[in-house]
Amino acid sequence: MRDMIQVERAGATGDGSGDITELARVADELLPPLVARLGVSDLGEIEVRQGTWRVRIRRAVSDTQAAAAPLAAPAAIGSAPATGGPAGASHALPPAAATDHQMATSTAVGYFAPKSGLAVGHRVGRGDVLGWVDVLGVRKEFVSPADGVISRFVTEPGDPVEYGQELVALIAATGPTAVSGDDAADTGPGAGASTGPA
Amino acid sequence: MFGRILIANRGEIALRVLRACRRMGISAVVAYSEADRDSRAVQLADEAICVGPAESRRSYLSAASILSAAVVTGCEAIHPGYGFLSEDDAFAEMTRAHGLTFIGPPPEVLERFASKAGTRELLGAHGLPTIPGSIGMLRDDDHALAEAQRIGYPVLIKPSAGGGGRGMRMVRTPRELQQAITICRSEARAAFGDDSLYLEKWLEDNRHVEVQVIVDRYGNGVHVGERDCSVQRRHQKIVEEAPSPALDPATRLALAEQAVRAVVAAGYENLGTLEFLVDETGAFYFIEINCRIQVEHPVTEMLSGIDLVVEQIRIAAGEPLGYAQSDIQLRGHAIEFRINAEDVRHDFRPGAGIVERYLAPGGPGVRMDSHLYGGYEVPPFYDSLLGKLVVWGEDRTAAIERARVALDELVVEGIVTNIAFHRAVIDSQPFVDGVFTTNLLDRVGSAAFLAATGR
Predict the structure, then answer these.
(1) Residue B79, beta-bridge partner list
(2) Chain A neighbors of B98, CB-CB under 8 A
(3) HSE of B252 in the Cβ direction (CA atoms, 13 Å)?
(4) Do B72 and A165 touch (CB under 8 A)?
């Protein structure tokens, strides 16, 4: 089962040109909140109707998630607090074959500085501050896009970075859309960078 | 001279500045938004740096991102192009505070000329005839009504921070004024982050003529002639040419000389364009100054052989002008056509999409400044300018002949353009006769115009 977005209009008539404008409006208005809602819920599918329009979005249910026999999580190293989500399950690593790599990216232009003490193997929660980008002396924080474990520093401390540049790689604890916990809705500026609607 | 420059713009002007850098042996870094990753300027740059998402407020208009990009890439100066941060004195000041040079007037000069009403007053004091207008910014509706009464209807409502003809409205009655002023304020706030408005007397049948000046920081200034930008639609320039077909050589010279004398006296520095309205009698009124390189600068380059972007960079670096007015020779006639992605038949609605095929015209006296290439996707987030076709001829007739050939040769497929509209304009009697006025297209209606010329 794959991710799906479907937008339909009942009994569409006319030359279609009005439809395109209307479609763009419906997509602009409805899709972002629906995608966000689906992302933070346990639901697999959401369907809404507005006038004659019907919008349906469905999330892929991954095998790993379905079969999530939680493996023993490695002992957390360091002090990075694991926040949010029901304890246990959401922090368990999926089987290696289906590891989900996530990337914390820069939302600013400047020099890269990871949070002091942050190291490979640390467990972090979605939305946790991982460090900052120094923009003309002002620190712009960047956050973890998911619950997971830091696997690699893609950029060296002190390096110049551009907007969208990959900074820190992590292995997510669960699938990209299976975010649970209330804090997940509190998306930081870069939190949804890799999963949000394009 | 600078060793490395950040180009903080996009589209054809980013490419134009990059070409000037190449010629001068300056390393060029192109700042781009996520929507411009595949742009020609990014491909050709010595280095490119993404400064933000498609939304210009967070990329091309983000002073912190642009300046930080210049700092981390080791640039010594920033070229802002036109639009975006090009006339932002706070940005210029910030650039200087970080030890970099803003390629344009220095911050205090930008600040002195930032207010349009203030500039009118300043240059008026230095001898330029100015258009009657409101004194200071409009405080409220009552103030606006009183000022309009004093100036006399019709009047033009203009945003102080504006540019490119955006947010302006002409009104003929107090009632229209009251209705329009609220709309103008919200438009100005949205477009420029500043809702200050002022009024200007509206001349019914006017031509828009502007003078190009170059002034170094040592007080040496020259003019490089004028440009006539009277072919407009809703205050947007579509076709520009030089010399102006409406003015005789003596009037043109007097206008240009008076303009350069006034700006030098007022302490202007770097490239600038003084815009004038010319009425039916040939009387001219100063309206505003543009403190940046302009879209239509190639028209002047075709006549003078001067590379205006190179001059802009040289002067910002502190070099003296190095030549006098008598060294400048203006030859022949040049016309520029703004090739826009817009649907003429649907109220010039802007378009976007993939350019399936792009073939630029050529031959003697033909110049195409464009960032297009086959397969390029025109993003929907920015202005609709695809490029500028500029033609030169020994005289106006020769230039129009070349324009016909070049417009017929130009191929842009996959997206809607205004190429056919340009063809209709140059075949129209008012254009051939050189009597176009700024409100002609709006009065006649663009569709009727197209139909009347058989296209």
Answers:
(1) B7
(2) 136
(3) 17
(4) no
